Records
---
Amino acid sequence: MDKPPSHRLVAGILALGLTSVLPSQTQACGYDMLVGDPFALAWPGTLDIAIATAGAISAKTIDPIPALTGGEGFVRAQQWLLQLKDQLQRADQPGGFSILLVDSGLWSKMRGKEVLLLQLHSPSPTPRDRVVLVSEAGLNALLTRQISVDQALRLGVLSLPQDPDHQLGPHLRQALAPTDADSSKTG
């Protein structure tokens, strides 16, 4: 007569099944300290953004940012992405895109139309997803209005490689447009 499977065997099978499924649901990034070189997770064009960012910092077009790793770096990136989400929301601009911070390899998704949701540590986008590639210094420069979206695109610190309807650029321009407070700082 066959013995019923033991609870340990069932638990082991479940654990094995979960470990084979979970890695595809999330992706490690440089902040996790599990990835030695975030460019190993690279999306086409990320190295170009990193090189362009170094050039823009060297030319003093954008400000350098302190290097932060681990939890501190993740918190800073989260704050920038939340700020971007808030600015898109205030400008009544939709989400519906993935964003990669190329320095760390952190993928996030901005979802929704009337109410935007930010999903950090999201899986890589599908070929049909709209994609934003940006460096951390580039995102900081955009959020502080040091440069415009058009300047960031020209400098190469921002790229929109997957934007089939060409709406992502206008949405970002609207959300990150200089405000009256920004123009009073320079005038």
---
Amino acid sequence: MTDSGSREIIVTESEHDCEALRDKVLCCGHSMVGPDGIDRINVIWKRARPGPITTFEWQTKYALANTFTESRPGVIVSIVSDWQECRLGESYQINGDGQWERAPAGSDMANCLTIAGNAYKDIHPVVGICAGSSQHYIPAYVEPYILYVGSKADYQPGPYSRVWYASDHHKMSQFIQCGDSEPDAATIDTLVPNPRTHQFVWELTFDPESGKWTNGP
């Protein structure tokens, strides 16, 4: 099928299971490969209270921003720049005023979002993913290491997304540590269609008693 860039993860729960999960929050995160080559999820992209039907919908459209916030559990991402839409293979740089500019040299990384230079301040780059059919970008990854003035970085969207139920204390935090979503997480390869339906839609159900996820139709 033709890939329009639209993605959906639909989580369905019975009334009984919603009651069992009432002290949890349902989280969704997307993997990203940073300059260190590590494929990780370190931000809760979206969250929701348990309900009969919860849908996480996004487009494979990306944008760059920056923050001074360190990526650690217990805090919210505070963006200090405008979002700059960036397609795979495109390259932007941050000028001395903290504004985004198209990099004249372009990028030789066809599958990456490239920050070709930073002339502003020492910052943490942020990669956003477009929510649903809107043009609203939500942080999906925050670089854990500082991008120093004069440095550059490449970011490659990872091959998977995850959904998991987390303790209620996560409701006031966006950052997670690697492994926080384990072991009770459903991992989905969102680069290829659902083999059951041949669409970029996945239906899941979580059993609180067994701690296992099952795939829907």
---
Amino acid sequence: MLKLSILLVAVLATFVNANSITLELDVDLNGMDPNSVDPYIFENVVKDLFDKIVAQLKEKDPAMIPNIDVDVGEDSDPVRLKLNIEDLIVRGFSSVELTNIKISAIGFKLEFKVDLGVVQIVAPFYKLDGLLVIIPLYGSGTFNLRVVGAALKGNGKLNIAGPSIQDLGLEFMVNQTNLVVTGFLDNEPLSEIISLAVSECFPVFMQNYGKRLGELLAGIIQEIINGALKPKPEPEPEPQPQLPYRTHRLDFLH
């Protein structure tokens, strides 16, 4: 029996107290010829795994991150940034849905699509202090970001003998964003303009560069997935306790 330990390294896991989700699936591959395995078996395995991941995500949604501190550069550097966010709330990430999974019988080519639904990120307080060459960056206030229709499309090749994923390709898509930020440069009219600009331009940016972004991240994500797919080594058997060896002296009387 080959036991696969699947580790979901989500984007939020970096911040949410380094929480991650660990699942285990038992897949019996011993004695199987990789060329004769029905790909639908693995499609069902992936679907079952995804359902288990979503079930655990629902227990963590919404997530609250008490404090985020970002400190980049020194005071004398031309580019520096200090950002503090308190009580960041992320909700809706458990609405993720695997809407398509297909593994072809020839070559085990993999295609999938994951819809993220509606995700909202709310910061009741942020403080910004930085410099971009000669442009000062500062302010404090709130921001509320709502992303609608985000999706991830992917393809690659499944190597079941490993098991591993090869030649992973990704593309990110966003249909709609709505950003409301206050307090940027302590200027509310400017904050409103920035909010509208980001809301309108970000989906277009993702439409033009979502595939390029996927290319940049595909290698990292493939390495993470393959590392998680490595079977756990079988635990070494515990040593059996040894009975104490005793010598007995026998005295014979003549």
